[in-house]
Each structure stands twice: as C-alpha cells, then as structure tokens.
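[Discussion] Sanity-checking designs against the backbone

I'm trying to build intuition for which residues belong where. Below is a structure token string of 900 positions. I'd appreciate it if someone posts a full sequence so I can compare it with mine line by line.
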C-alpha cells in the first residue's frame, strides 16, 4: 500500500511541478509549428470527390467529410426524413421543438428549398439568440449569485445575459463580439453594449468575504485578488483561444510553450479592474447622448484649465487648497446606511474599566478644537450614541505613551456626561503644538449584559480649518476589528452617522475661490471664463435631464466602495511572477502582455505609462482577433460545430495545446476557420455566426440519419468520421422549456431580471429553498435561460439533467444516465404539475375523444401522430389513472428526451 501511495505522490508532484521540477522548469523544447493548432491558418484546397458520389455534396463541408469516409471504406448514411430534420434543426437553432402546424406545413411544402427556408426562419427567430446565448454562458461560467461561502444574489448580472442574447440575434461580427466583452468601454464607449458586455470578464464566482470584508495589506487579501485575476485570465484565454494558460500559474506550462511570465503578464491586463456594479444606459440613443455631452464637458474643462493656467502659481496653490476644502465639505452627505460605524472597544464585564483610543497626527499641530461624534448601531435598540462613554477625558501629548507632557483638554470624569447621540461634541484645543490626541473612557457605556466604549468619528481641527486627524494612524488599548462596520481606521475616515454638508460654509469657500480667480485674471480672461462656466452649467443640466443610468455587474475601475473593496481609479495593481504560485514569494514585476510563441503576434504590449486602464484590455482583445492568430478562429468554429454534432472536430474545446485532442478533420477545421474569418463564397459576411450555422446545418453531413450501420460501425464505432449524425439528448433547459411549451404554459417574454425556482431568504449567508418553489408561479414560466442560476445550491431538477455548473467553465456538458433523472422526470413537482396542464390542453383540443387527446399530445411532444398500438395502451392507462399520467409517460419516453 505504501508503494502505491509513494507512486501517487510522485505522479502528483510531476503534474503540479513538484520539488525536483522546480518553479521555473522549462516547457518542452518544441517549435510551435510542430503542433497543428499553433501553425498559421491557411485555407486548404477542397477535396475532389468521385463523380458517382457528387450527388451527396451540398457544400464543401461534405467534400471534406466524404473524402475521409471514402478513404476509410465508408460513405454517408441516407438523409433523415423531414419530420426528423425539422425537429433536429429546430432544437439545434432555437432550443424548442416545432409546433404540430409547423411540422405539417414543412411536410407538405413542395419547394426543393423548403429546408433552407426553414433554416432561415429559425435563424431569424428571437428564440435563436436565447438558445445560443445559453451555450456561450456555459463557456464563460455565468451565474446570478457570487458563489463561495456567502453566495449572495448578484442582482445586476442579467444585463450581460441579455447582451449575449441580443448579440447572437443581431449576428454581431465575431471580432466585435470579442472586443466588446474584453474592452467595450475602450472601443465603443458611446454604446450600451460597450459597458454591458464587460460582464463576461466578471461572470465567474466572486469571493465576497475575501474582497469586501478581508483587510487590505493582508496575505489573505493578496490571495483573494490573485485568484480573482486568475479566473479572469482563465475565462478569457480558455474561451477565446482554447489555451490552458492557467497551468502556468505555479511554473512554466509542462506541455505548451507558455511561461510563468506569460501567465502573469496576462494577469497584468486585468490588474486595474474589479467585479462591481457600474452604470450604463439601456437605451442606445441615451448612451450616445450621454457620451457626447460628457465628451463636451471634458473639452470645456480643458479649455477652462487653459484659462486658469494663466493665473500665477502662488494663487493657483491657494485655489487648489480651497478646492480640497470644498470637496471635503460637499462630501458630507446624510447617509444613515453608511456601514463604517467607527471604533469599538473590547467588551468588559464592569463599567469602571478604563479604555482609550488615540490618533497620531504625524507631526506637531496647532490644535484649535477636538471634535468627536458618537456612533450609531441598532444593537439592543440603542441607536444614536451607541457606546458613548459615560465619563471620559481628552488629552494631548508629544509622548505616544502619554507618560510625560500630558495636556488635559477636557475632563468629564467626575460626573456622568449626557449621551449626545450623534451630535458632534466640540472641545477646545491648546496653545502648544502637539502630535497625539487621546480619548480615555473612565466609565464605559452599558450594552446588554456588558460594557464597552465606541466612537463614530474623531476630528482634530487646526487654525486653518483642516481636520489633521483625517486618515491618520489610530491605536487603542483594545479594539474589535470587524470590517466593514468596526475598525480603528473608521474613527478617522471622515464619515459618521447623520453627517450633513453645511451650505453656508460651501458658499463662503466658493466666494473666496472666485475672488482669488477674479483678482488674478485680465478682463478678457474673466469674460472667457464666464462664457465657459455658463456652457458647463448648461451641459451639466442636459446631462442631469437624462434618465438615470442603470447598474450592471461588470469589470470596473470606478465604483462606489464596498467595505474593503475600493476602486483602482484606472491604476493597475502591481503584478509579480510568484515563485511556485505563492503569494508569499513575489519575484519579477511584469506589465501587461500575452503568450509569445505565435509567429507574427507581439507578446508584450508597449503602452504609455498614462494609458487608460481599458487600453490594456483593448490590447489583449486586438491580439485575440488579429487575423494572424490561428487559435481564435479555429476555436470558435469548433465550438459551433460541437453544438451541432455533439462533439467538436477537436474533442477538447478549451484545450488546443499538446495535451488536447487532435482534430478528426483538420483540413475541414481550417477551411471553416478561414471561411468564417475572411468571408467568401460560402460565408459571404465575414465572421457571421448565423451564416456559419446555415452552412453547417444545410450540409449533407448534418442532414444524415442517425441510424446505425453494421459495416461502418465495424470500422468507426465512435463515429469520429461522421458517417451518420450523432444521437443527442435534450439538455436540461431544452427539456424544461419543451415541457412548458407543450403544456401550453411557456411565456416568451424576452429579457429582464431572472426568475427564481426556489424560496429565498436574504440572510447573512443567503438561503435558497427549492422545496418552496411553486411551479405555477407566473414569473417561472419563462425560458430557462432567464432562470436565476445559483452557484452554491443548484436547482436539483436541472442538476439531475446535467445542467452546467456555474462555478466551472463548461465548454461541453456531461451526459449521464442515472436513476435520479428518471425519478426527477416522473416525480418532480414541476413535472407533475405540467403534466396536469398538458392533459388540460389535450382535452381542450379534443373534448370527449380520448384517442384524439392522446394523438394530439403525441403531435405536440414528439412531432408525430401516435400509432394504433400506442393509443390502445395509453387509452387504457388514461381510463385507469387519468390523462395527466399519460402525459407523464410521454414526458419520460426516450423519444421525447432525445433529439432523434
């Protein structure tokens, strides 16, 4: 047993870059051109097909596939019948079955191009975008909750989901689709989609505790951010170019020519963004108007700065000081929901324990006044004045221990001090300059069964009106550190409960500022400045008249701080190559870039130091959509192919490296990739996904029967060479949507916030209770793509049908066969209730005729009439157990669950 254990450890060490391998072991010394996916993308010639087989060729796809079949002693299978074809292509392009009327019309259409017309109609349907968006959302692991231990609902994620649906329906060129999702705010800043599409970067899980509650400067925070960026890098590179760059996080990639420096350069691309809500305009016209107005404001601001630059430097410094004071005063807003409560001491069993808190002003300061404010907390209904000391004293000193040179500023230790709530309490300062201010509670405030000392804010005002304590270092005898609510730094953050801006103070400061400007400028300059200010006010009024922007959860560098999650303001955090991937061992600092082994593509981005943060992401997007990047174009056509055939030409959609699968039809893959990238005879609009779909589904290869063939099975049992169509089972969403549709309950409402299939309790850690779900809830009758996807507690019905795990990148879903699936389809309350609705619908279509009801149910669910024998068996069941149970049987048959 020990021998096996030792072998297992050795294997694990090898695969993870163990001790002997070292953190910087080199990748295999191979030329990139040795591997099929790294070679330049060149369109291969279309194979010649013998004349006696030409009748099976509809487009070049068939020539590539049939050529390989003939080489291996096989040929195409017969074409599937029309009933099978309409069901197959309807599910593939829209995720829904055809209606009985649609089937009948297609069967009766004598037009030789009837199938092609059907395909065009399906591609034009809004249902197409809903179907193919689901595939894309799997690939980028989109979810509507954060995941991790506090799996909070992400209420503003859904605009990204709607963007993907819209992008597929509009048939956006693929390069624009990529660029919008990585750097839409850079490439298309005047559009709605330029912001909303950035939801892709942050679609994955979000560690709420690590990002919002863990303090900055700790190793835990560093680990959280490293993992967060790793998810962004992995999602981007796996999805767009099918490269497993994440394998180079701890060491150089063991198989592909990807170094650790490459990997961390990719992290640097995303070093300036976080996952947060950012504003956007749902109406594209308003988005464009807002952009143009804000651009005009920027131009006016530059023009105004030019005029002000003529003011002498000494006066400009005075104006800058006033601007800072005005900004601080205006920032005081009444914010009863502010979570930064203040300082909170440790608890005491008795009230007479002395506790102190002090601020280091950094240097000696002339203190005119000390002001402190009580805290606010609803604990035990205390509210305003929570923890305010019953007795206290205020002291000043240059000694941090307050052992010598102590100046008493206020002594309230002899009698109880009335609790002032959150009204600021001013106390006189001292004549001598001092460095430290200490507040000591000599009698603590009662809590419930114990005592404590709390303050909301401590301010030390100077003769010039500055708060010298703002942001300075705070120490205390003891402290409860429970961010974001309680922390010593909250005592000097400039925020407290009930805070208000003083309009008179603002007016005085602005008057003084204007007087300085007037005295320093010539009359012509003053006239120009007046004109500019009037234009600024007019433009600001027009901006203010626009509808309020809406929030979307997306990659952001400007957002409202939440706890310890604060915006970078476009400044990228430093990124280091981590030895063995350990945050405790940072090495060389790196800038933004990507892998360097593809010929003709630069690996490092030469960006100016003042380049906007989005320019980093834009550089990566440009690298990805470069026509000389062979991975991008091979990757997307392989994904589309996989969804139509159940298996890609490359069977590892996220890994085109040395350890990935080799393509079964490499020439076909390259022909499709070049035709898609550049356009041509068969895809006339370059990078049109709809035309790519049309090319594939109108081919003979796609239209084959899925029936077996003993001769071909003996040669190619796995159907790698596509001598028949693969049988595919409906995925979880298609099952649920079809059940709703044939039951007459499906709502085709498009877009908007998702619906829940569970009860919900928004606790400290939210609870998702699927047992409380009402299948008749009107909101839940929409298509499954609009379902609110929970990461930590998946919907048990959808999970049993192999629905994608939103915590993982899912390029291709598992397809299992378990008893749990049969039990869910038979007994889940959703299925039971929809069976009852289905029965009601069947009865309405054929009142008083049980056989006709069964036949109508078959037509709706299976796209064919019931046979005489099926009617006989199910009529007996209906007479015994009711029509609803007949509908449950239909929902559970293989013919319902498989496409064909």
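Best answer:
Here's mine. Compare freely.
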């Amino acid at each position: 047993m020990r021998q096996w254990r030792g072998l297992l450890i050795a294997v694990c060490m090898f695969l993870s870059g163990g001790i002997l391998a070292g953190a910087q072991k080199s990748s295999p010394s191979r030329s990139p051109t040795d591997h099929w996916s790294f070679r330049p993308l060149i369109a291969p010639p279309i194979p010649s097909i013998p004349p006696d087989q030409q009748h099976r060729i509809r487009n070049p796809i068939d020539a590539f596939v049939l050529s390989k079949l003939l080489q291996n002693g096989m040929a195409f299978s017969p074409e599937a019948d029309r009933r099978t074809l309409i069901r197959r292509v309807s599910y593939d392009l829209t995720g829904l079955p055809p209606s009985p009327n649609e089937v009948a019309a297609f069967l009766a259409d004598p037009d030789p191009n009837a199938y092609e017309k059907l395909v065009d109609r399906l591609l034009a349907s809004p249902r197409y975008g809903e179907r193919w968006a689901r595939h894309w959302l799997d690939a980028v692991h989109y979810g509507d909750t954060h995941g991790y231990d506090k799996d909070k609902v992400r209420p503003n994620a859904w605009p990204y989901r709607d963007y993907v649906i819209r992008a597929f329906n509009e048939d956006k060129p693929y390069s624009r689709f990529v660029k919008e999702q990585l750097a839409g705010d850079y490439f298309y800043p005047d559009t709605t989609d330029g912001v909303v599409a950035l939801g892709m970067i942050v679609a994955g899980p979000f560690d709420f505790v690590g990002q919002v509650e863990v303090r900055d400067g700790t190793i835990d925070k560093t680990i959280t951010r490293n993992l967060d960026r790793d998810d962004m890098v992995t999602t981007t590179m796996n999805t767009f170019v099918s490269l497993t760059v994440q394998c180079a996080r701890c060491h150089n990639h063991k198989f592909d020519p990807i170094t650790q420096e490459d990997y961390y350069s990719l992290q640097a691309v995303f070093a300036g963004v976080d996952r947060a809500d950012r504003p956007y305009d749902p109406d594209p016209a308003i988005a464009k108007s807002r952009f143009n107005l804000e651009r005009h404001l920027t131009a006016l601001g530059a023009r105004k700065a030019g005029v002000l630059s003529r003011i002498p430097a000494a006066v400009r410094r005075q104006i800058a000081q006033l601007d800072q004071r005005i900004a601080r005063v205006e920032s005081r807003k009444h914010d009863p929901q502010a979570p930064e409560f203040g300082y909170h001491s440790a608890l005491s069993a008795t009230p007479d324990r002395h506790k102190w808190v002090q601020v280091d002003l950094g240097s000696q300061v002339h203190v005119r006044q000390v002001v402190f404010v009580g805290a606010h907390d609803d604990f035990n209904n205390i509210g305003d004045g929570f923890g305010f000391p019953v007795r206290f004293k205020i002291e000043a000193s240059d000694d941090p221990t307050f052992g010598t040179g102590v100046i008493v500023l206020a002594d309230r230790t002899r009698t109880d001090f009335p609790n002032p709530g959150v009204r600021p309490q001013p106390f006189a300062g001292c004549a001598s300059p001092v460095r430290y201010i200490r507040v000591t509670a000599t009698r603590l405030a009662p809590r419930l069964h114990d005592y404590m000392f709390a303050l909301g804010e401590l301010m030390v005002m100077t003769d010039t009106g500055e708060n010298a304590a703002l942001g300075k270092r705070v120490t205390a005898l003891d402290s409860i550190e429970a961010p974001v609510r309680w922390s010593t730094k909250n005592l000097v953050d400039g925020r407290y409960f009930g805070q208000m801006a003083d309009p008179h103070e603002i007016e005085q400061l602005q008057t003084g500022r204007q007087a300085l400007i007037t005295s320093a400028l010539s009359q012509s300059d003053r006239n120009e400045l007046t004109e500019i200010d009037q234009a600024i006010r007019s433009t600001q009024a027009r901006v203010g008249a626009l509808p309020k922007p809406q929030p979307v959860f997306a990659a952001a560098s400007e957002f409202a701080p939440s706890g310890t999650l604060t915006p970078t303001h476009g400044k990228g955090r430093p990124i280091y190559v981590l030895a063995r991937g350990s945050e405790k061992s940072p090495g060389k600092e790196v800038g933004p870039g990507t892998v360097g082994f593809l010929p003709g593509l630069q690996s490092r981005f030469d960006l100016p130091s003042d380049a906007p943060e989005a320019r980093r992401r834009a550089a990566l997007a440009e690298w990805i959509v470069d026509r000389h990047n062979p991975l991008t174009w091979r990757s997307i056509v392989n994904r589309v192919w996989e969804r139509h055939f159940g298996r890609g030409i490359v069977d590892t959609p996220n890994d085109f490296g040395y350890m990935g699968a080799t393509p079964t039809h490499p020439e076909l893959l390259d022909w499709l990739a070049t035709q898609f990238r550049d356009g041509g005879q068969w895809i006339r609009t370059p990078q049109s996904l709809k035309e790519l779909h049309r090319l594939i589904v109108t081919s003979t290869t796609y239209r084959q029967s899925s029936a077996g063939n003993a001769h071909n099975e003996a040669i190619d049992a796995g159907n790698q060479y596509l001598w028949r169509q693969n049988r595919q089972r409906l995925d979880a969403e298609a099952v649920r949507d079809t059940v709703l549709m044939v039951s007459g309950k499906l709502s085709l409402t498009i877009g908007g916030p998702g619906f829940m299939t569970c009860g919900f309790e928004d606790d400290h850690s939210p609870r998702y209770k699927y047992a409380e779900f009402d299948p008749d809830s009107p909101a839940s009758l929409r298509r499954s793509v609009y379902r609110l996807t929970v990461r930590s507690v998946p919907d048990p019905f959808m999970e049993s049908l192999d629905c994608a795990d939103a915590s993982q990148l899912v390029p291709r879903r598992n397809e299992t066969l378990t008893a749990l699936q049969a039990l869910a389809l038979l007994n889940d309350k959703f299925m039971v209730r929809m069976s009852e609705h289905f029965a009601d619908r069947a009865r309405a279509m054929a009142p008083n005729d049980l056989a006709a009801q069964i036949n109508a149910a078959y037509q709706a669910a299976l796209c064919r009439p019931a046979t005489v024998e099926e009617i006989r068996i199910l009529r007996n069941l209906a007479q015994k157990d009711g029509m609803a149970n007949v509908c449950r049987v239909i929902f559970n048959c293989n013919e319902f669950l498989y496409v064909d």
